Amino acid sequence: MPTFPDCQSKRPTQLNPLNPYHYVLIVYWVFFRPSILHSYLYDASPRLYILRGGRKFWQGFAVKAYRRLYLMFPVALAFLAIALGLLFSTVTAYNLQGHSSGVTAVVATTDGAIAVSAASDRQMKSFVPATDAMLKVWDLERGSERATLKGHRKSVSAVAIAPDGKRAISGSFDETVRVWDLQTGQQLYKLEGHERWISDLAIAPDGITAVSASGDGTLKVWDLQRGTERYTLVGHEGEIYDLAITPDGTRVVSASGDGTLKVWDLQRGTELYTLKGHQGGVNAVIITADGEGVISASGDGTLKVWDLAQGTERYTLTGHQDSVDTIALLPGNRLVSGSKDKTLKIWDLAQGQELYTLKGHKGWISSVAVAGERILSASSDNTLKVWDGAQGQELYTLEGHNSWVRAIATLSDETAISVAYDRFPRVWNLATGQLIPLNQVRLQRLGYLFSLFVSGGFSLFLTVVLVALTLTMGLMLFGLYGSIFASLGVSLVFSACYTLAVIAFDRLKAHPSFGAFAEISLLDRSLYIALGICFGLLLNVSLGLANRKALGAIAGIVTTTAIAVFSSIVVAGFLNRPATSIKGSLVGGWRAIESIGIDFNRFVAIGSLRLIFYPFNLIPQRTHLSQWDESVVLPLPGTTRFLLHRLQQSESLGLQIAAEIAANPFQRAAVQRALYTHLHRSPAPLHFLYRLLSAPELESYLLAPIEPKDWKCFLSRRQVLLGELALQPVRCSSETLSAWAESFVGVLTHWARSRRTTPLTQFATFLYAQTFNSPKLTSSSLEQLYSACERYPGGVEIRCSWSALKIFLDYQTLSDLGGAVDVLATEEFLGLFSARSNALNPSVIDSLERLGKIAAEVTTPETLTAPNQPLVTFARALNSLERLEALARQSIRLPEQVLLLRAIEQWRSIIFAALEERSLSPLSGVDLAEATPRG
């Protein structure tokens, strides 16, 4: 009966829950070396190893090795909770650095040292939930984030900085205006009163008076020193989009979606004029430096120049083909405008004429700014452009944002800052067109990314540890099916996490600021791929852990295909409605097969075939990778060469390694080639076969038994290696599905085996049949087989042994036994006796010699004529046969053992017959102890 496989690898006798290295070991054992795990469990308690269920669980606490393995699970779970907490904290801190939503507004202090950015949603709807309700203060001299201004409950829509650079105000979708101290980052006042979102803000030159415009159609004038409301300016019939305060701070002009502009007296809080003429909503308004003119831009594609003192229109500037959204003043009484028609235009305000049309952007113009004679434009094509305002030519294209660029603010004549629907602002050198990095922000991001990498990697590792422990517990407690259900349970957990992630990503995609999350589509697909790989890998590992490696390689693919077919039947049949045609149902069914059975199954196959590990398997190791990874599916380069080298160094060690590798049905072809090649290259091939037949270390099971029936049907290492040499299909599975899978693997790897039949492979076939006690060759066939082996070293010996034993089996009477003496006295046998030290199987030669001595003793006339001598002689012969039988069972292997045991039994029958013939009893009148030969 084969013994349990003995693991030669160095391993701890007891795992320690407080030793981090042992967690690495358990992952390695489960995913790559399950034989070590089985050896650990069996050596800890052979009695517990064969038990199943709750009884085994409770009794396992009495075994230290089992108890420590149990404790590893809650310890790993606790550390995973800590790691996830650190990961969540790091992600939160990382998200707090920079905005987490689209940035749509930015303003800077007059000295260009400080900038404030605000995030908002693309659509100005008050019911849109906030994704980023904070403002960020940036120290542009140090290149760092200075403060985060928290307080708004919804997205921030507008921001302005006081002339002294000490205060800022912000307006939000939460209908409030908040006043901030930029030095401390503290909120000073919360100004309430508007009934809809705040669309724009402006601070008067005195730094005390501020005006807010709202979607409710009103403006409010605030006292920033006291944090109180002065006036509410009512008159517009639509949402107010923009406002501007005159340089002297006495008047404010508002632009509305009702197509009008209104001029208000800030001192009295009264309306002065209504400027009418636009055929669409007024998007932007600015006041000339002298405070006498107003320029408005409208959705009707026109600009209008107004006389502020008279409240009358001077002229209309036409030329844009779409809505004009942004305008800015240039030196020399000129104006630049940006439109949804993807162009900018430079106008001469004195003449009311167009000077240049600036083309080059591939998207809408969302913002323009002026720095000296340079014009800076921002577009929905994710770029900015720097133009020469005097010549009307493009100087540079500034690339760096990965989403729609929404706003620009100039810091000086040489620098500017821009924001987009991504997280961080960009600072630009306008003279060179180069990006000026925010160095401190970059260092902080690197620090957070490193923390994310560490905490995320630790969390991932502990997740893998928990998966490995879950599979181990399932296998320990419930065997094969426990391992399978554990893998399916883990797969369901992963599927639930994937579903939650997809829902979250879909919400982010649906969010108006999705431009800030452009990478989510790639992440979504990556998780889909990871789910498929994990599902295939988990089934592969769970079945490999239960020593069903062949089934594990195809189970995931077959299961996914079955799910796809079932889904297609449900979609095409049960979900069919009368309104759906047969063609539509079939198309729906095919799409289910295509999405699950083909697309998703591709990634399941990667996991099932362990392709994610294959690149690591190609990395050079101190030992060959076939020993490092027991479950590898694809052929490993150099396996045959490695085994040949080991066999040449030491056949005993080489056979042990070959047996370990042969436990994987995908690698048996390489083992067969190595054994076949070594057998035919060996100077003593028959000696090699007999070593394979007699090596005690090959008596153990090839695989560790998992189920009770495995103990009865699993093959020994010797049987598998002999079967491969004999070119016989070898199956090591106790279930029909697993046996079918091994046969399938055998067909797939058929091409990689050496298939030429030789006398040596025929002899190996005979030995393989003998190991199952099922010889399939007749005596004549055996004669031919042994004769064919005579040309190899040791061939004459086994042919002579076979011939002698065959002759000895033909003896029927006591007188026939004398022929054994004559057979063994021939020159051929005398040569074997003299050269027994180099014999193929010295024990067989010794046994033949003993049989010859027994035959000589029982057939000598002198021993048969003296009184009582026959009884003594026969008793000694029977005792010698008994001792020879014990020796044969202990030290002589098949096939000679079978023939020798038959010959001993035959001779014993002959001697008993002789005793009966002489009416002698071997139990009367003779002391058998004295008759027993000594030594």
UniProtKB/TrEMBL annotation:
User: CDD domains of this UniProt entry?
Assistant: WD40 (cd00200)
Keywords, comma-separated and alphabetical: Membrane, Repeat, Transmembrane, Transmembrane helix, WD repeat
* TM ranges: 20-42, 69-94, 448-478, 484-505, 526-545, 551-575
WD repeat residues:
149-190, 191-232, 233-274, 275-316, 317-357, 358-397, 398-438
Q: Which InterPro entries match?
A: Quinoprotein_ADH-like_sf, WD40/YVTN_repeat-like_dom_sf, WD40_PAC1, WD40_repeat_CS, WD40_rpt
Transmembrane as a keyword of this entry, yes or no, is yes
Supply the PROSITE patterns for this chain.
WD_REPEATS_1 (PS00678), WD_REPEATS_2 (PS50082), WD_REPEATS_REGION (PS50294)
Keyword flag Transmembrane helix: yes
Q: Which SUPFAM superfamilies match?
A: Quinoprotein alcohol dehydrogenase-like
Which PANTHER family does the protein's record reference? WD REPEAT DOMAIN 5B (PTHR22847:SF637), WD40 REPEAT PROTEIN (PTHR22847)
Report what the protein is called. WD40 repeat domain-containing protein
Origin species, per record, is: Lusitaniella coriacea LEGE 07157
